[in-house]
């Protein structure tokens, strides 16, 4: 029985150590993203700019929880292991609540698509008028190998197409996958 307990303690320590490292990784990625924001991110909707902040918060939470698990396993502390178990239970309840909320909100996917399309229309309409919009549109067109939100005709400027439309393989529209 003592051997099984030791194995469980070691496995719990290793698992929580991996989680702590993953939490630190999320924290570092979030901080690096926050520090390296460039002008092209000005076109990203505010709802997506929240991502690095969420990475930092989630990274900190994962690290703290994993720390309690590691310390509780190593020190065989009933108090730390109880705290760890309660935190995991709270997280489980929150996950269920978020899953239910997401399930209820998934019906509004069309509204989300429409909001995203309006943002893209605004960005595409400011091509050659705003350097940030121009760079963003060029990045989108190169990345998705497309030309114009609704096809090449929407991108013809002064009788010519932008260089980002002149790729070897190009799809007709950026709005269709």
Automatic annotation (TrEMBL):
Could you list the residue ranges that cross the membrane? Answer: 12-33, 53-74, 81-104
Q: How does it sit in the membrane?
A: Multi-pass membrane protein
This entry carries the following GO cellular component terms, namely: plasma membrane
Localisation per UniProt entry = Membrane
Q: Which UniProt keywords apply?
A: Disulfide bond, Membrane, Transmembrane, Transmembrane helix
Q: Which pairs of positions does the record mark as disulfide bonds?
A: 147-165
Pfam families listed in its UniProt record: Tetraspanin
Cite the PROSITE patterns for this sequence.
TM4_1
Kindly give the InterPro entries that the UniProt entry links to this protein. Answer: Tetraspanin/Peripherin, Tetraspanin_animals, Tetraspanin_CS, Tetraspanin_EC2_sf
Concerning its family, UniProt says: Belongs to the tetraspanin (TM4SF) family.
Name listed for the protein in its UniProt record: Tetraspanin
Species in which this protein is naturally found = Oryctes borbonicus
């Amino acid at each position: 029985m003592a051997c099984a307990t030791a194995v469980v303690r070691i496995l719990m320590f290793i698992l929580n150590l991996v989680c702590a490292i993953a939490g630190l990784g999320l924290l570092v990625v979030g901080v690096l993203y926050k520090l390296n924001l460039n002008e092209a991110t000005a076109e990203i909707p505010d709802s997506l700019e929240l991502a690095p902040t969420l990475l930092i918060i989630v990274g900190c939470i994962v690290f703290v929880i994993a720390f309690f698990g590691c310390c509780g396993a190593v020190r065989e502390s009933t108090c730390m292991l109880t705290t760890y178990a309660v935190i995991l239970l709270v997280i489980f309840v929150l996950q269920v609540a978020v899953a239910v909320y997401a399930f209820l909100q998934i019906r509004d996917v069309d509204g989300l698509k429409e909001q995203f399309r309006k943002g893209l229309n605004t960005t595409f309409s400011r091509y050659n008028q705003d350097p940030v919009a121009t760079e963003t549109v060029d990045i989108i067109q190169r990345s998705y190998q497309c030309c114009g939100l609704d096809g090449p005709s929407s991108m013809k400027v002064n009788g010519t197409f932008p260089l980002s439309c002149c790729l070897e393989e190009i799809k007709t529209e950026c709005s269709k996958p």
